[in-house]
Amino acid sequence: MMATATFFVTTARSGTQWLTRALNRHFDDLLEARHEPVGYLYRPRRTLRDPAALERLRAEPAVAAHFDHIHGVLAERA
After folding, report:
1. 10 Cβ contact partners less than 8 Å away, ≥ 6 residues apart
2. Is the pTM of this model over 0.90?
3. Residues 6+ apart with CB under 8 A from 42
4. Quick one: DSSP state of residue 31?
5. Looking at residue 65, what DSSP letter applies?
6. 5, 29, 64, 71: least CB-packed within 10 angstroms?
7. Residue partners of 5: CB distance under 8 A and separation at least 6
8. Distances (CA, A) of 1 to 6, 28, 70
9. What string of DSSP letters covers 48-64?
């Protein structure tokens, strides 16, 4: 079975903190849920509208480390 990652990109005040807590409380043995793990380092207003800027974000150390973490989790868990 191939591991997958699901990302929620939403508007502000949409319940993502509640969703993160609920997923971790009820499914922590099956998944890992994080709420804004790199804060606003990804500059959403700029990068989510500009694919080239989004690609350049990989150079940001905290973002690169988070991507590495995601790949590690996907390699270890279904």
Report:
1. 16
2. no
3. 57, 60, 63
4. -
5. H
6. 29
7. 70, 73, 74
8. 16, 19, 17
9. TT-HHHHHHGGGSHHHH
